[in-house]
Structures are given as structure tokens and as C-alpha cells.
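FIELD: query
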Amino acid sequence: MISREFNEIFHKYATDKEIFHDLMPLRAREILLVAPAFDAFTLEQDGLLTEILFEGYYQLNMSNPPRVTNVSTVDEALEKCASRHFDMIIVMSRLGQGGHIELSRALRKADAKIPIYLLLNDNVEVGVMDRRRQDLLRHYDQIFVWNGNSEIFMAMVKFMEDSANVLNDTRVGLTRVILLVEDSIRYYSRYLPILYSEILKQTTRLAKDQNVDRMARTLAMRVRPKVILATSYEEAMAFCDQFQDCLLCVISDRKYPKGGVLDREAGIKLIRALKERIPDLPTLLQSSDPLKESWATALNSGFLNKNSYTLGAELSSFFYERLGFGDFIFRDKQGAEIARATNMEDLREKLRSVPVETLVYHASRNHFSAWIMARGEVQVAKVLAKFRISDYRDPEEMRTFLINVGDYVQRMKTLGKVVPLTDSTPKDEPNILRLAAGSMGGKGRGVAFTHSLLSRLDLESQIPGATIRIPRSAIIGTGEFTDFINRHDLRQMLQEEADDDVIKRRFLAGSLTPELMAKLRLFLAKHATVPLAVRSSGLLEDSLSHPFAGLYNTFFLPNNHPDPAVREAQLAEAIKLVYASVYSKASRSYFQAIDYKIEEEQMAILIQEVSGSRFGDRFYPHLSGVAQSFNYYPVAYTQPQDGIANIAVGLGKYVVEGGKAYRFAPPYPEMDMLPPKEQLRTTQKHFYALDMSRTSVDLYGGEDGTLLHLDIQEAEKDGALHHCASVWDWNDDRIHDGLDAPGPRIVNFRNILKYDQFPLAQILQRLLELVREAMETPVEIEFAVNLDPDPQTGKPTFTLLQIKHQLLESGDVNLSTADLDPAELFLFSERCVGNGIVEGLRDIVWVDPEGFDKFETPALAAELEKLNDRFRAEAGKYVLLGPGRWGSNDRHLGIPIQWSMISCAQVIVEYAMENFQADASLGSHFFHNVTSLNIGYFTVPYPRGSSLLDWDWLRRQPEIWRSGCLVHSRVEAPVHIVMDGRRSASAIFKQAPQPVPPEAEDGL
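FIELD: result
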């Protein structure tokens, strides 16, 4: 369960989307149409009316079109109303055919709240009904006429929704109101469909222009202006009084009742009265007499000829020019155009240069609020609507405020979002850019969520000593990968089982789409001027059950060639090689092991700026690492829930590949987990940096093609160890802080962890807590720290690179050490990862410590891979024992294997010898894959302590195969393996326990 604190933080900033959800609480979902059988048939024609509504909704990107139910009699109507709720009822009438009054009375009696509209069949009925209008409105909410234009049905639905929601929406979302004043059934029935069509089209166009997702567009439709209809002067004035602060415009006929009698100048009188209250309220006088246009001009009002053949186009122009749906037109006092803004970014630029008089002109008339409101920026429009010219010291202060509001709108629109890359995308905003369509993949989803989370957290106020961010990132969706595979017919390579070199050559020969290449060109030119990491983001990657950690390639690019075309080609090459890694041998082995089809995988690409500083011809962060919220190996007074962090100098590749990193528990950063001599023995000796000396790169050879593997002394020469290392004093058997004294260096980050030179522990503890609660599982995060001051903030920078699930098993296994008989055990360890019982294993692959040579570990790795291939061909599994650390690239720490080389191992044991010891593989990609598959992972230390490893028993077992010190033994009876994940204890019994005979059970 996510805690209340996290929930409050994540939802701290109420977005316009949340406001949109509160708008239009009543929407038409069920409509009852009561019509004579012939009319119903004419309308429906086997679903025609429903199709009309569906098409109207679909074309305008609106969801959930209403369902229409047809009935023909009063009894059917009452029966339907009794059995189901309807949001509105439409009753059709034919002249000379009675019954609709009686029907409306019966329906009102059944449910007085349901809106009931009378729909006349054609204009012939209008004259009669106009004369009986007031009497009929006692039975109906409104009367319309159908002249064969199907859009009347959409207009009736929208009109019903507006009538029901206008009070709520103007209060909650400051929704604008359009007042239509017209007493003729014929004309408002003609006029409303055009009006709604324009409103919906303009709102839809604006939503598309804002580059928002489809859901946001649908929700934004709810903030559209609401239309209310008045049929007399008094009713119109009452609506104006009620909604004066929200009026967008008034569209009025020239003649309609005033004081109970028809007044031929009622519309002119209404507009004159409103202009006295709101001088710049947009108004539109409509008349069938074109000579009245001069009257409208005298009132500074628009004019519309009701009989015009271009009524829709003229109305569209009015919306575009006068109601904020089009460009913002800056005018002088005389109304002449002096500048034009097409979007929010353009508006900000124009605000910097237009004359003060123009600013005052528009601000005093609330033009900025109306224009921003039309774009769905409800929060900002609310703020602007409250300010008056007198609230500022002078017009220049108002100008600054308006510019800042524009910046705020731009930030809020993209806050925590993944935004499409376009020519107008701001280069200074910390956005994640989308370069191609499709899923973002596992890493992409994690980075996008992290971006959203950090944008809502005010971490820097809680931890003021650091800038906390994600790297600038861009995502290529899986659509490009699918297109690449299909266009170049590459799926056949799965059946051919081609080797890795053939696969890479085939992929490099392919071409990315011209659309993506154009986006890469724009990205490099405008947004990416520092080194880049091109990372895999498989659809299945970083999942809860199978993280695929380290399975696919990541490439680092210096991005420093003077020719933009070369940099573009290097980036494209890296992308294609990441694609190729999906079909590599290691990938195929993994998919086979987890019983997945590799065809199910799709690859997105995550491109990120590399976090770090340049040191001459080298680029790397001062430190990087991995932190986990659950610690498999707690020491001293730490608890598993305290988590663990592994950190090292340089690029994070060193840590995730199992290098010698420094470990600490974030709640206890000052605690040394190892004594001084052990720290010296296990301290970091090398680090990775990006080679900036070459502008041309060769990625074909693998991930290391652009990297340098350097001695840690090089980092000290660069000045990067100042806060990261201490000195070992042989004489006093102690560690001296700082690097002033001579002696061996220990990379223990003492200035940072003990003296809080940088608040790393505080940041990790807070982030692990928040991300764990957000994902509701234990989590792992990867990060980098640059201690140099950021040019903008003046503070060091913590960069959060990735988040992923940390898999834990919680089955009910209880291994009681008090009941164990050492004679029955082959192995016992209290440093175990995994949970459950493993049965049926007879094969044990082991490295004989008596013949082990630590300088021959690469040869052992090659032999082991061949043996594993034989097991894979026979679908076999085995127990694996070896010295030192499995999964390390450092051959002096253990046998340097990748997980695919031992993928058939069901249980893996690391044993230590007196002269060959290494910490477990915690935090490495290898370790992550092992734990994700619930493969038993046991550590037997030296000296043994409470642990046990019966070498004598193992040597007595039959050997199937031996090569040097690598042995394959097969026991006569399967071993019995128990893993108690709660206690981190494990045991391998020499044989399975014998079942209790039934007679013994009976005797109990």
C-alpha cells in the first residue's frame, strides 16, 4: 500500500487533467428516442442514428458516444424508463398526430428530472409550435426541429449536457460561456449544430496543437465553452448576470420578445447594455436583414447574415479571430494589428517587445486570460483573471509577470512528461523527448516514471546541498525496431541461429527510417552537445519477474566529432548494434532459459547524456553506483530493510559488472562494514572513463570500444579522488582521511559518507524509500554524482539513471539449524539468496580447489561455457561450485563469465579459499539475473565458521568428465536443496529425506 506521505507528494500539484476530470459530471450515455415506427425506421435504418453519433464523437476525438434506444408507443417508453435509467429523452412529433403531450406528462410523472426534448419533423410544424411555445415548454425542456440535418442530434446531446453542467463547470474550471439569444425554433435548430461543430473543431485543433497525449485531448474537450440558449431579453439578461465573469461571447438575434411583446431592436438593446458593463465582450449580431450590419459596426460588434450561404465559415472566422481560438493578435488603441503570436512560446517572445500601451490594452480586457483558457490552461487562466492593472506597480512589472506566466505554462504542460521532439521544443527544458512511436520499453518506462516523480518532489528543498535530476534523455519507441526488423527481413536469423558477428553485420547494413534520422539530426544539433549513452530498453527489460539485466548492449559515444553528419552516423550505428544484441547468443540463451519466445521481445532505445566531468581526454563522474532497498547481507546492527549501496569512482559499468566497489548502508553511512586491512585488500584498483581523445569510434568490437579501463591512480592525477579516497597507514594499522599523507589509497568516500561533503546517503535513503513505496516492491536504483558545481545551480549534481524492481521471494520455507545433522549435509551456508526447495538435481559441476590456478580463470570460463552448452542441448540442470566471485569481469576476483555461460545452473555456490577471497556479486547484472530466476545463490566463506562444505563426499562421487580442475560429477541419488529466504540460510542434503511410512504415521 502506498503511504499517505508518498501519495500527497506525488499528487502535490493539481494538474489541469485533474480539473478536467471534475468537469461535465453529467454526460449523455443513454438516450431514449420516442418516435412513430416510420420515423424511427427512417432515422435508424438499422443503426444509422447511432452511427451518426458515433462518427461525430470519433471525428472529434471524443469518447463514449451515447447509446440510442428506440420505442414507438407511450407504454413502451414507460416500460423502458422503468427498467433502465436514461440521461435524456427525445420525443418526435408529426403534425396532426396527437399523443406527445400525454406522453410527456406520463414521462414527467415517472421521473421529473430527466430532460425531455420535443423534436419536430420539419419546418411545416414550426409555425404552429412557435405559437404554442410557452404552453409546450411546460411539458418539454426545449423544442427543436429536424430538417434532415443529422447534426441536430449531436447538438441536442451537447445542449443537454451544457444545460446540466454549466453551473458546475464555471465554478470548478472557470469554463467560458457562449450565450445564444434566439427565439425562433427554426433558426436556433439550424444555428446550434453549426455553433457546436465550430466549438468542437476549434477545441480539438487546439488540443492537437498542444502536443498532448490522446487521453489529455479527450479530457480537454470538457473545458470547451458551454452554450446556453435564451429566447427573450429578460432571460438573456438573467443569464448575463449569472455568468458575467465567464462570458466568452454573446450571439444575439435582432428581434425577440422584450417585456412580453416582440421587440424588433431587442438584440441591439441587449448588446448596448452589455457593452456598458463589459466594453470588450465579443458580440455577434445576427439578422436576416444585411442592412443592419452598420448598426452592429456602430456597437463595435460583429455581424452575421442569418441567410448567408457561408454561415459556417463566417462563424469559424469569428471564433478564430475574436474568441482566442486562433492567433493572439496584439493591437494598438485604435485596434490595428501590430504583432501576432501563434503559440505560448511565441506569445512569451512577443510579450518582451510589444509596447506598454498594447499590454495595458489587452490585460485590462482580460484577453490574455481568455486566450490561455481557450488552450485548456485552466489554472493559469484562473490566476490571470483575478489580476487587475492596479495590482502592479507599473506596466513593466506586469510585463515581467506575464512572461513568467508563459514560462510557467510551458513548464507545467511538459512537467514530468515525455514530449515529442519538434523544431519548437525548448532546448532548456529538462524533458524526455520522444523520437519515434511505440512503447518506451522497460528502462524507458522507469526513466519516464522517475522524471515524473522528481518533477513533483521538492527534494532540493529537503536536501539543499545537491541538484537532483535525471539525465537529459530521448526515447526511440519500439515501432522503429519492428519496422527495422520487418523492412530488412531479419526475423529469419532466429531460425538460422547465426553467430554474433553475422548478426551485427546484417543489422549494420540496414537503415533507419528517414523520419527517425531527421529526428536524430535535430536532437544532436539542438539538444545533445555532451557525451551520450545509448541504452537498450527492451519491452520485457527490467520487468518484475525477469529484469534481463546486462543482457543487451549499451554504448557510450564521445559525441565530439566536428562534422555533425559523422556524429549522426555514430549514433545510428550504436542504435543498430543495440537492436542486434536482441538476437545475440547470450540473448537467445536467456530466452530459452526463462521459456520465453524471443519473437515477443521488442526493443526501444534510451539515449541519455552521460553524467560526469571532463578531465583532459577523459570523461567520467566522480562516483557512480547501485543502491538497493533490501540488503541480502546485513552486518552488525543493520537490517535487511536498511538497504545497501555499492559505489565506485568512474562510470557505473564498473559497479554493475561486479568490480570492487565500496559498500555502505544509507541509514548508517559512517559505519565501516570491513576492518581497515580488508578495506585495503578489497578497495577499487581500476575505473572506467569515456575516451574523448578520438573523434572516430569503432563500436563493432563491443561496448568497450569507446571506454578506457584505467588504474585508480589516474583518477588521483585528474583530481577526482579528493573527496573519494583515504590513505592506509601501515605503522598504525589505521586509515587517514584525505590524500595528504603518502601510502596506499583506499577508495572509501570518507569525506562524503562520514563528513557529509555531499549528502549522498541522505539522497539515497530518501529516494529508495519513495521509489519503493511507489513501485510497492523492493527496488534498485542506478545513479551517478558529479561533485563539480553545476553552472546553473552552483551545486554538485546527483543524477538518477535507472530504477528497477529488486526481486524477493517469500514462500514458506523453514530451515531449522538446530535440527540439522552435519552427516546428512553436503553444504550449509547462512549467506544465501533464493527461497524454496529444489529437487531432482544429480549433476554437480565444480572447480577443484586443489588444482585451481587463479591465473587460468579465462580458460576455465571457456571450458565452462562448452560444458553448459552440452547441458542446454540436453535440457539439463546442475549445481555449480566455484571459487571467488561469479560474474565478475575481473579475472583476479573469480572466473570471468557472463550469465549465458552458466545459464543451466540451478544452484550456484561461491566458496572462498585462504588465498582467494572476494565479496559476493551483489549489485551486478549477473547477480540480478540469478536472483530474478530464483536460482539458489550460496556463499561459503573462509574461514568456514558455521558454514559447511564436504569436499570429501564430493570427491567420492563418480566423475563424468574432467578438464584440469573443472569437474562434472553425477551423484547416484538426487540432492535435496532447501533455501530459507527469510533467514538467508541454505542447505544441500546429500539425498532427499525418506518419506514416513504409513504405519509410522499411524503410530504417532
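FIELD: remark
Confidence is low (pLDDT under 50) at residues 1-16, 998-1004.
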